[in-house]
Amino acid sequence: AQINIEQVLRHLGCWEQLRGNGGELRGSCPFHSQEGSKGRSFSVNPGKNVYRCFGNGCNQSGNVLDFWAAYHQSTLHQAALHLAETFTLQTKRTEKRSP
Fold it and tell me: Using CA atoms, how far apart are residues 42 and 94, in angstroms rounded to an integer?
């Protein structure tokens, strides 16, 4: 909740190539190569904070954390820690108490 998909895509240099208006932006998928520079299989809905690629065989989709994990090829846990570190986000750690 501390970061949105636009902030992440801007940080990674993926936002500027997206085009569209309204609630959906489209562009080339950052997860797979597309012929030409006008690929539009990648869709982002900033209002809902989600993305999806409709490219043949790609089918990546999810929220900000899913995107970060897929982009960096990491687990969700690793991605959460890396995302928090990169954007200096507050983390809440809970310690398990011994009985």
Answer: 36
Q: Tell me the C-alpha distance between 4 and 49, whole Å.
A: 6
**How far, in Å, CA of 71 to CA of 31, rounded?**
7
Average pLDDT value for residue range 16-41: 83
Helices (H), the chain: 5-11, 64-71, 76-86
State the number of CA atoms in the 13 A half-sphere of 11 facing the CB: 13
Rounded to whole angstroms, the Cα distance separating 36 from 95 reads 50
Has residue 99 got a pLDDT over 80? Answer: no
Cα–Cα distance measured from residue 97 to residue 23, given in angstroms and rounded to the nearest whole number = 45
- Exposure string of 49-80, with b = 16+ CB inside 10 Å and e = fewer, is bbbbbebeebebebebeebbbbbeeeeeeebb
